[in-house]
Write a sequence for this structure.
């Protein structure tokens, strides 16, 4: 099933709300809609409507690549690369390395998280591993066991941020 911004959600209670249907009174990235259920607000809007969902009964092993955002309700082991956001729902069990724009963990996660923006550990979520992000939010009731690295600049800019003292003008203009 392909989700579009204007699609309505079937009446099943365990399906996500269609992108754009959430109440716009609050612009927070995450919304708690009912106990134990977290959704990323605007996830599809930011990525042109592309959200990949790994269902609750799914078990994936290997590399998961998403051109947009990714929501995991099932089990994943391996590596996750998303150009958008990644949401691990409360029933998810993930043992992987994640690279994405932003991550919300409401389930169980073991591994490494590397995000360009915000990493959020929601109530009831657990992270056993390291997180590298610009912003880290741990809600009350979230469990974090590992190391947090607050990265203020993207990695490629750090290496080329300033030339070394005493560098020649030719070296400063050289292309790498």
């Amino acid at each position: 099933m392909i989700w579009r911004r204007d699609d309505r959600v079937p009446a099943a209670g365990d399906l996500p709300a269609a992108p754009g249907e959430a109440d716009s009174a609050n612009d927070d990235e995450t919304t708690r809609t009912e106990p134990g259920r977290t959704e990323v607000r605007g996830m599809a809007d930011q990525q042109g409507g592309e959200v990949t969902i790994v269902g609750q009964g799914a078990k994936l092993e290997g590399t998961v690549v998403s051109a947009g955002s990714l929501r995991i309700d099932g089990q994943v082991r391996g590596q996750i690369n998303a150009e958008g956001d990644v949401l691990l729902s409360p029933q998810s069990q993930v043992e992987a390395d994640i690279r994405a724009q932003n991550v919300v963990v409401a389930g169980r996660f073991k591994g490494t998280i590397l995000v360009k923006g915000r990493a959020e550990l929601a109530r009831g979520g657990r992270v056993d591993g390291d997180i590298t992000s610009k912003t880290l939010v741990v809600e009350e009731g979230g469990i974090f066991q590992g190391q947090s690295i607050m990265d203020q600049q993207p990695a490629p800019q750090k290496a080329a941020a300033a030339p070394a003292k005493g560098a020649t003008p030719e070296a400063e203009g050289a292309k790498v």
About this structure: Residues 7-45, 157-163, 167-172 have pLDDT under 50 and may be disordered.
